[in-house]
Amino acid sequence: MKPVLLITGGSLGIGAACARIAATQGYDIALNYRSSATEAEAIAADCRAAGSKVVLCQGDVSDPAAIADIYAKIDAEFGRLNAVINNAGVVDQTARLTDIDHARLRRMFDINVIGAMLVAKEAVIRMQAQGTGGVIVNMSSAAARLGSGNQYLDYAASKAAIDCFTKGLSDEVAAQNIRVMAVRPGLIETEIHAKGGEPGRADRLAHMVPMKRKGTAEEVARATVWLLSDDASYVTGSTLDVTGGR
Ligand code: NAP
What we know:
The chain is α/β, with parallel strands linked by helices. The chain has nine helices and seven strands; from the N terminus they run E-H-E-H-E-H-E-H-E-H-H-E-H-H-H-E. Helix 1 (13-24) links the parallel strand 1 (4-7) and strand 2. The chain is globular and about 50 Å long.
């Protein structure tokens, strides 16, 4: 039986690249997305062509009822869960703290932090009940180290929370052979920058990267899927920077 992998935010960017690579490495996939149904269908088709069973799980991870629905579908369609890439995440427009309101902070933390924690919680419940161990990779960001002042410090703070959560959860579940890690992408070319109001952001800031270039979603995905694998069997509690040195 193939291991079952849940990817949140699997319709675009890094999550989609993770799905394509995981499919070639022998995973069946529960592919979550929120609104990009056409794109999610296309990724699912690619993964099926590579031999994976794929179940699409539409749902907004900031909604606990939607998370319950996602897991109900996984339970019904697969009856097991072995790995999670906790990838769904958002940025917002460039702003200083004095221009950031309560609604924006709620949205950022509901999706990036509380959503990720609840997704991980449901995964741990299943992995513990199965007694099989498991792997959870949380998608953090280099912003967690950099702070992102004058850009989006709320986003950076949400990702710093993910780093801390990763360490804490890894300690809680390590004895059951559930490994928990975070990946911190740097400047990666995806649609997230346009959603933050600056489509050319990765190109504009590439000169600040020691490797002098932006990264690709596939480069992040390869590192992420490696962490899922048995080749990383003694890795837990770690955060892996995939940043070109930034
Ligand atoms: P992206 O291209 O904008 O894709 C984001 C994905 O997350 C989409 O599949 C989107 O689904 C999904 N999503 C957003 N909000 C969701 C929600 N509430 N519930 C469920 N799914 C949701 O972004 P990306 O660049 O691939 O980013 C993926 C992760 O990497 C994020 O956590 C991001 O913070 C992190 N990251 C990215 C970069 C970068 O430079 N790109 C750098 C550091 C960290 P729909 O489109 O279907 O709504």
